[in-house]
Design goal:
With 72 residues, this protein is of the alpha+beta class. The protein is built from two helices and four strands, in the order E-H-E-E-H-E. Strands 1-4 form a two-stranded antiparallel sheet. It has a two-stranded antiparallel ribbon with strand order 2-3. The chain is globular. Bound molecules: iron/sulfur cluster (SF4) (2 copies). The site of one iron/sulfur cluster (SF4) has 14 residues, from helix 1.
């Protein structure tokens, strides 16, 4: 089924605090073992977003953007 929302993570801005993972009520974001160029571990979007935007609001580094509609 097509995703109703698109969750974009700007990996270069992320500092690996995982507040987004903690706040997501849908478990749509999870900790990954990948790191960005600054060495911070990255979250990954695993699907199932409900569009609440809590991740976008809590991210201290403005690294997450949630949009309506699936990925083109
Ligand atoms: S809240 Fe922002 S900075 Fe923290 S892990 Fe998530 S995307 Fe990265
Ligand atoms: S918008 Fe809400 S449901 Fe979607 S990934 Fe962010 S916190 Fe999770």
């Amino acid at each position: 089924m097509a995703e109703e929302y698109t969750v974009r993570i700007d990996e270069s801005l992320c500092k690996g605090c995982f507040l987004c993972v903690w706040v997501c009520p849908a478990d749509a974001l999870q900790e990954s073992d990948r790191r960005n160029e600054r060495g911070y571990r990255l979250p990954e979007y695993v699907g199932g977003c409900r569009g609440c935007r809590q991740c976008e609001l809590i991210c201290p580094d403005l690294a997450i953007e949630v949009k309506e509609g699936g990925e083109e």
